[in-house]
C-alpha cells in the first residue's frame, strides 16, 4: 500500500474516531440507582420534560436518570431506596411529597416520600430554583403511586416538632 494511501486511511480513521467520541462527550455520566430497572422508573423517564427550571435536558449514560443544564445543575435518579420516617423536612409540591436534605447546601437533595421506587433529585441551588424544579418534575414523578404521605406531628397533635411521619395515603 503506498504511503499516501496509508496516510489517507489513517487520517480517515482518526477523524472517524474523533467524531464517535464527540457524540459521547455531551452525555452526563451518572450511576444508575439500585432499582433503576423497576418498570415504574421507565414510566417516569418517558415523561421527563425537555426543560426543568428553564434548563435544557441533557443526555445521560445510565438507566433511569435525567439531567438538565450545562453544566448539569439538576440530576435525577429513579429507583433509589424509599426513605422511612425522618427528622428532615418534607415539602409537598403539586401533590408530591419530597424529603429535603440541605446538609450540603447550596446543593440540595430531594427524595420522594411514600412512593416505591423513590426518585431522587440533586440540585445546585445556585443554578436552578428548587421550587421550579420540583414543579416541573411533579407530573413525571406522580406516575409512581403514592402509598404514604408526610404529616408533620404538629398537624395532628398540637406539638411543634416538624418531623414528617408516614400516614396511609387516601
Q: Work out the number of β strands.
A: 10
Strand order of the largest sheet: 1-2-3-4-8-7-6-5
Distance between the termini: 76 Å
- Can you give the mean pLDDT? 82
Number of helices, where a helix is a run of at least 4 consecutive DSSP H or I residues: 4
Shape: globular
Low-confidence stretches: 3-24, 155-163
Radius of gyration: 21 Å
Number of domains: 1
Residue share in helix: 25-40%
What is the element string, with H for helices and E for strands?
Answer: HHEEEEEEEEHEHE
Q: What fraction of residues sit in β-strands? A: 25-35%
Features:
eight-stranded antiparallel sheet, 170 residues, globular, alpha+beta, two-stranded antiparallel ribbon
Structure notes:
By secondary structure, this protein is of the alpha+beta class. It has one domain. It is 28% helix and 31% strand. The chain contains 4 helices and 10 strands. The strands form 2 sheets. Strands 1-2-3-4-8-7-6-5 form an 8-stranded antiparallel β-sheet. A two-stranded antiparallel ribbon has the order 9-10. Strand 6 and strand 7 (107-112) form a beta hairpin. It is globular. Mean pLDDT is 82; it is low at 3-24 and 155-163.
Amino acid at each position: 500500500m503506498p504511503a499516501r494511501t496509508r496516510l489517507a486511511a489513517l487520517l480517515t480513521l482518526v477523524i472517524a474516531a474523533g467524531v464517535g467520541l464527540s457524540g459521547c462527550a455531551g452525555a452526563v455520566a451518572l450511576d444508575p440507582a439500585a432499582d433503576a430497572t423497576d418498570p415504574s422508573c421507565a414510566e417516569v423517564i418517558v415523561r421527563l420534560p425537555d426543560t426543568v427550571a428553564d434548563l435544557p435536558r441533557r443526555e445521560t449514560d445510565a438507566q433511569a436518570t435525567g439531567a438538565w443544564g450545562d453544566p448539569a445543575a439538576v440530576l435525577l435518579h429513579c429507583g433509589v431506596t424509599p426513605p422511612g420516617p425522618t427528622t428532615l423536612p418534607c415539602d409537598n409540591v403539586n401533590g408530591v411529597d419530597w424529603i429535603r436534605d440541605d446538609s450540603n447546601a447550596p446543593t440540595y437533595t430531594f427524595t420522594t416520600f411514600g412512593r416505591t421506587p423513590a426518585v431522587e433529585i440533586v440540585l445546585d441551588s445556585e443554578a436552578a430554583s428548587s421550587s421550579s424544579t420540583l414543579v416541573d418534575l411533579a407530573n413525571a414523578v406522580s406516575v409512581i403511586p403514592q402509598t404514604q404521605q408526610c404529616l408533620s406531628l404538629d398537624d395532628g397533635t398540637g406539638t411543634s416538632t416538624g418531623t414528617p411521619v408516614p400516614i396511609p395515603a387516601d
